[in-house]
Amino acid sequence: MSVTHIGNTLTDWANTLTGWPGRLLIKYLLYVINLVTFSMLALRDWFRKNRLFDSHSYSTTVAQVIFTGVDALPTITFLGLATGFIFTFRLISISNTLGGTNDIVNLLITVICLSAGPFLAAIIIISRTGSAIVVDLGNMKLHGEIEALENLGVNINDYLIAPRIISTAISQLAITVYFTVIALLTGILISALFVNPAHFDFIFKISNSFTPYLMSIFVVKNIIFGYVIATVACYNGLRVQQSATEVPQRTTASIVQSLSFVFIIDSMLTFVIFV
């Protein structure tokens, strides 16, 4: 039984029971299934052929990491400094008024490390890397480069798609780590220099409170964000057909879809972790 047949069956069932809300729900459900299938096939081919040690795949992955992570450092640095001054510094400087340092430490870990950091990094990656991937693959599709590669026997999955997914996931994690360190250290240093030197202790308190459980949540969340962003971008890029006007349309669709998925995933993980 094909995916199309299953989709038609589910659509008919949903239409019978709930009308247009059911059809809309099934439409988005099938789209998510297509995205997961698309990315899993690309990663399967990549790992099956052991592309980790392939020169082209390695160079593509490294180049994508540099574009996604290194080139975005000025923006991430600015956001980290601003967050550190506006949020971290103010919280730490009034820690005694709020009733103790433990609550402040937990609040900083929750907001900066597990919420603001991953979300802001995802927005940067969506706007820079996600859109660039759609434009790159879309133009390759328009100019016949994708078809030419396929005619030469090149597997697009492990040649173009998988390196972008892997590099984006790595970059998302690296950028969030960098942002988190900048945001926390900025607020702690400013507070210790201008309010109370004892606030230097927040560095050790935060590091001691960041348990392996929280660390695993931090890593998994960022890898999922990067994986989703790259998958949506690659999928939309390859859906460009014949018109050049499709490229900006697919780029816009990719940005909107990625933001929606990141928000939904973030909400679901927050509910699972803290409720």
- Mean pLDDT, to the nearest integer, reads 84
Helix/strand-derived class?
A: mainly alpha
Give helix and strand order, one letter per element, not per position: HHHHHHHHHHH
Distance between the termini: 39 Å
Radius of gyration, in Å, reads: 22 Å
Helix content: over 70%
Low-confidence stretches: none
Could you give the count of β-strands? 0
> Tally the helices: what do you get?
11
Overall geometry = elongated
Main beta sheet: none
Number of domains: 2
Features:
86% helix, 2 domains, mainly alpha, 275 residues
What is the structure about, briefly put?
This protein has about 280 residues and is mostly helical. The chain has eleven helices and no strands. The chain folds into two domains: about 1-50; about 55-275, no CATH class.
